[in-house]
Amino acid sequence: MLTRLAALAAVSLVPLAVAAPAQAAGSCSISVPSKVSVSSPTRDLTATFSAGCSKYAVDAWWGVMTPAGEYADMFHFDGARTDTIEWYDVNRTGTFRVQADEAYDQAHELVPQNSTSMSVRFASRTAVTSTRSGSTVSVTATTSRYAWSASAFRPWAGAKATLESRKCSTCAWTPVKTGTTSTKGVVTLTAYASTARSWRVVTADTPSTWGKVSGTTTR
Asked: What pLDDT digit, counting tens, does each position of 69-90 carry?
């Protein structure tokens, strides 16, 4: 980790160099998860390098840039197929750009690289319970989302929650009713159903939090 931080600090002192086509015959590409869910103070985040990296490059670097354009970390290809960095919840959320820095071949010529991005948001949880009174079914959803300031899950207030149902295990889910969670992260949605069916609640994505599909309950 100290070696990575030292390298990161050194890179941040110079302007970011965008690799341009050179004498190398091929390119070196990186791929990262398009969606990153943060549910703990730290987590491993792994990038995979293309076969072209092993074939054409000796060393390659990509800077991980925050939405504000600052360095958060870096990925380094040194011959291995993958590289893993430790991701911190204090990096917050948003679209992080994984930006080409430099890649070299054995002759120290530049190798073309790609740039990509990943959407980072906090994780959420949704649990459901249900009751039936005659033909009226009530489904209560309890939601929470990860709060970096507390390093724990906390009630998710103001979440958009949609109640869905289906009549059989192979039937499509059908939206029934939409509501908003309370300050305690709870919402109760009622619907009419003369026969038993499966129910679930789906919370919507927000710019900072990934939505969640709950488990099912049958009434």
From this structure: 999 999 999 999 999 999 999 9
Is the pLDDT at 8 greater than 80? The verdict is: no
Q: How many CA atoms lie within 13 A of 4 on its CB side?
A: 18
Mapped onto helix, strand or coil, the DSSP state of residue 188 is: strand
- Per-residue pLDDT band for 4 (boundaries 50, 70, 90) equals very low
Give residue-wise pLDDT tens across range 18-74: 333 334 469 999 999 999 999 999 999 999 999 999 999 999 999 999 999 999 999
Strand partners, 83: 47
Q: Name the one residue in this structure whose structure tokens are 């995979």.
A: 48
Which amino acid makes up residue 158?
Answer: G
DSSP state of 48: E
Give the containing element (helix H, strand E) for 5.
helix 2-12
User: Reading across the β-sheet that carries 82-88, which strands appear in turn?
Assistant: 30-31, 42-49, 82-88
Among 37, 40, 45, 36, which Cα is nearest to 150's?
A: 40
* Residue among 124, 36, 49, 47 nearest 88 (CA): 36
Give the chain's radius of gyration (CA, Å).
23
d(CA 72, CA 66): 6
> pTM of the entire structure?
0.85
Burial string for 15-24 (b: 16+ CB within 10 Å, else e) reads: eeeebeeeeb
Tokens found for residue 107: 């002759």
d(C-alpha 83, C-alpha 163), whole Å: 41
Give the pair of three-digit tokens for residue 58.
């000796």
- Beta carbons within 10 angstroms of residue 43's beta carbon: 14
